[in-house]
Amino acid sequence: MDSCRIPANASKCSGNTMECFMVLSTQAQKISIGILCGLFGTMCVFENSLVLYLIFSSPGIRKKPSYLFIGSLALADILASIIFVCSFVNFHVFNEAGFSKEVFLLQLGGVNTSFSASLSSLLLTALDRYLSISRPSQYKLLMTRKRAWTALAVLWVTCATIAGLPLLGWNCCTLDSSCSELFPFVDDNYLSGWLCWVVVLLGCIVCAYAHVLWRARQHVAYMEQHQAQAGKQNSRMRMDVMLAKTLVMVLAVLMLCWSPVLVLMIYSIFGRLSDRLRKVFAFCSTLCLLNSMINPIIYALRSKELFSSLRRVLSHFRRQLKAPEESPEAESSHKSSVIETVCEDMHAV
């Protein structure tokens, strides 16, 4: 195993870097983490897979850039859930440390890429709503499918590059620098830079949504003053206002779920974390899964188009369940009963 400088509060581990970060000391804590990860991860994969299916199975929905960004968010949440649950449970619950530094940093890079892409997808969605509400007449010219796909490609490449920097050499083992107290082999300076990146993303999202909400309130006031002028423009405004409120709910959930983790990360850079706080960080990390699980629920409840698509899927599923009743065996039984009835009638005659 590669050796590197470890945190001061982990010096009792006698140089075994990986074991220093296995903070769950009791079986109850491990079982709790395992149950939370299993429950949140399974629901997250199922719900976001359903969202992706609803988006790309409907030609009318998948053509809209707004839902391409939401699809990117769902895909990022699926990948984050799978990679996070597998690596997190394997490390903290089963205490598996028999892998190299490169393998661990690859897993960490996958988690960071997915969660960063999830956050960046929210930023693109916020900018899309900003354009839709601030420039409704030019929206279709400004936000085309080609530009949406290009933005998504830049997004994923950027997130993967930033997340892969520790694997490429920016780690405390290669640089012989100060290691993070929360993540093995992660350089404190890299963690600081990653946190700045996340804070910038959140700040841009908040600014975009602040303007979206301001314009949405203007639209609501306009619609209240022009109720008699019902038409396509008012319908479009209602859709923009509804989608803006939906995305604000997503952002609120995001902040509530990620704030504890981000606060502890920032604190670990400027101070020393006790063993209790490191355990709290492990449990708070599962809130990121909770966020990914709640997002598709918000879409289903707030998006009329996705909800209508879901109803069509459920209706088709119910028809498929009723199909066995019309199977060849049922048809043969029906024919037999008809023949018996005819024979009885002939006998009576």
What's the gyration radius in Å?
26 Å
Low-confidence stretches: 1-16, 337-349
Basic shape = globular
Order of helices and strands: HHHHHHHHHHHHH
H/I helix tally:
13
Question: What class do helices, strands and sheet pairing give?
Answer: mainly alpha
Number of strands: 0
Oligomer: single chain
Main pleated sheet = none
Distance between the termini: 94 Å
Overall mean confidence score, pLDDT: 80
Provide a descriptive summary of the structure in words.
The protein is mainly α and 349 residues long. It has helices at residues 17-20, 27-56, 59-62, 65-92, 101-134, 139-142, 145-168, 172-175, 188-225, 232-270, 275-302, 304-322, 328-348. The longest helix has 39 residues, at 232-270.
Short synopsis of the structure:
The protein is mainly alpha-helical and 349 residues long.
How does the SSE layout of this entry go?
Elements lengths: L16 H4 L6 H30 L2 H4 L2 H28 L8 H34 L4 H4 L2 H24 L3 H4 L12 H38 L6 H39 L4 H28 L1 H19 L5 H21 L1
Helix pairs in contact: 2-4, 2-11, 4-5, 4-7, 4-11, 5-7, 5-9, 5-10, 9-10, 10-11, 11-12
